[in-house]
Amino acid sequence: MVPFYLLFPVAILAGFVGAMSGMGGGIILIPALTLLGVDIKQAIAISILSVIATSSGSASAYVRDHITNLKIGMFLEMFTILGALAGAAITLAISPRPLYIAFGFVLLGSWLALLIAGHESWHEGAQDSISNWLELEGSYFDQAQGAIISYRARRAYLGAPLMFGAGIIAGLLGIGAGAVKVLIQDLIMGLPPKVSTTTSNLIIGVTALAGTSVYLVHGLINPGLAAPVVVGVVVGAFVGTRVLVRISNRSVRQFFLIILIALAVEMLFRGIRGS
Amino acid sequence: MAENSNSSADLAMNSAPQGQQKMDLLVGYLLLCGVLLSMALIISGMVWRFIRIGQLSVSQKLAGMNLFEFVVSEARIVLADRLRPRTLIACGIAVLMLTPYLRVLASMLYFMFALKNWKYTLFTAIVLGVLTFSLFIR
């Protein structure tokens, strides 16, 4: 049993860093919990439960600001939840070592994505007939530009199967996999960045629920462990989103690059050596 | 005929965003209330336990059961008047898990009754069906 005085601060830190970097708490929480001696499958199960809380909490604000596109969210959810069920089933079936390695690669991928992150401006493109039939369009008020931005999503036929893949990663590793979901909506479906990040946030909650229910049935959610972690992550995320405005983007990025690469090496090392 | 369809399209354009905005508020507040209630339950369970036992860590195992069995077993404890800190924590976890579920249910009903959008009623019904299945897995 991991003592409360270790568990709670670690959860707060994970939620804080996750919110500050925009990558969600799970990606820090799971390596940290395994370092404290928690079994990786239990860590994954508890992390995905806490993802429901952080995603729903932040989604509630974005939805009320009318930035999130509910239709695009609901359409893509059909695919992510199936992926999450499959992913969680795989986690239950395999041994821990490949999980460490897969997690190490996801951390490496996030590190790379952060390193080469370019800020491509968003361009409106022509909509195909399938996306049009699916009513994947909307508008929101952009505060930075002081204007109403209208947009139409495209290539839903590519976005949907890719979202199934994002769901598998989420269910398998107990993370929101928000970065993957945002990438699909940005690059494939051509959504404005604000819409894709907030809509991805909404999808994450339901996707995490599908994964959580699989882990719950298999007795991997221990309320004694989950309670302080969920509360800690939510508190950390709450503070993290408010600090974000005060710290310069550059220092956040530097700090996060170091943490990500350290955790990636550590997880890969444990996966290869066998802990 | 052409004019008719034009004006009805205009009407749809004007009314849809408003209906959509109400739906945004419904979904937004539902999510917020769910998370706040669940946090309140979990924290009060932890504080209550600390006051009674002087210890914050709970070692409590959940032998594999799905969410509905979980809710029923916790409800039995509450009805039998054996409310304990761990019951509050378990209820908090159940509320947390039901929050996105209720969000999907509310959206489906809204698409069905308020917006009369059958396409999206079907899509949300599929999501709800898969989630219900996952909550009943054995």
Tell me what the structure shows.
Chain A has 275 residues and is mainly α. Chain A has helices spanning 4-21, 26-35, 40-64, 70-93, 96-115, 129-133, 156-173, 178-188, 193-217, 223-243, 249-273, and strands at residues 137-142, 147-152. The longest helix of chain A is centred in the N-terminal third of the chain and has 25 residues, at 40-64. Chain A is globular. The model of chain A has no long low-confidence stretch (mean pLDDT 86). By secondary structure, chain B is mainly alpha-helical. Chain B has one domain (29-136). In chain B, helix 2 packs across helix 3. The longest helix of chain B is centred in the N-terminal third of the chain and has 52 residues, at 2-53. The termini of chain B are far apart. Mean pLDDT of chain B is 80; it is low at 1-16. Chains A and B meet through helix 1, helix 3, helix 4, helix 9 and helix 10 of A and helix 1, helix 3 and helix 4 of B.
Q: What's the gist of this structure?
A:
The complex is a heterodimer of chains A (275) and B (138). By secondary structure, chain A is mainly α. Chain A is 73% helix and 4% strand.
List the helices and strands and how they pair.
The complex is a heterodimer of chains A (275) and B (138).
Chain A: H1 4-21, H2 26-35, H3 40-64, H4 70-93, H5 96-115, H6 129-133, E1 137-142, E2 147-152, H7 156-173, H8 178-188, H9 193-217, H10 223-243, H11 249-273
Antiparallel strand pairs in A: 1-2
Helix pairs in contact in A: 1-2, 1-10, 2-3, 3-9, 3-10, 4-7, 4-9, 5-11, 7-8, 7-9, 8-9
Chain B: H1 2-53, H2 67-79, H3 85-114, H4 118-136
Helical fraction of chain A: over 70%
Number of strands of chain A: 2
Write down the secondary-structure element order of chain B: HHHH
* Run of helices and strands of chain A: HHHHHHEEHHHHH
Average pLDDT reading of chain B: 80
The figure for the number of domains of chain B is 1
Average pLDDT of chain A works out at: 86
Q: Which structural category fits the helices and strands of chain B?
A: mainly alpha
Uncertain runs of chain A with pLDDT below 50, 5 residues or more?
Answer: none
Return residue spans of chain B where pLDDT drops below 50 for at least 5 consecutive residues.
Answer: 1-16
- Please work out how many helical segments of chain B DSSP would assign: 4
Gross morphology of chain A: globular
Proportion of β residues of chain B? under 5%
Q: Walk across the major sheet of chain A and give the strand order.
A: 1-2
Please describe the biggest sheet of chain B, giving its number of strands, its sense, and whether it closes into a barrel: none
* Count of β-strands of chain B: 0
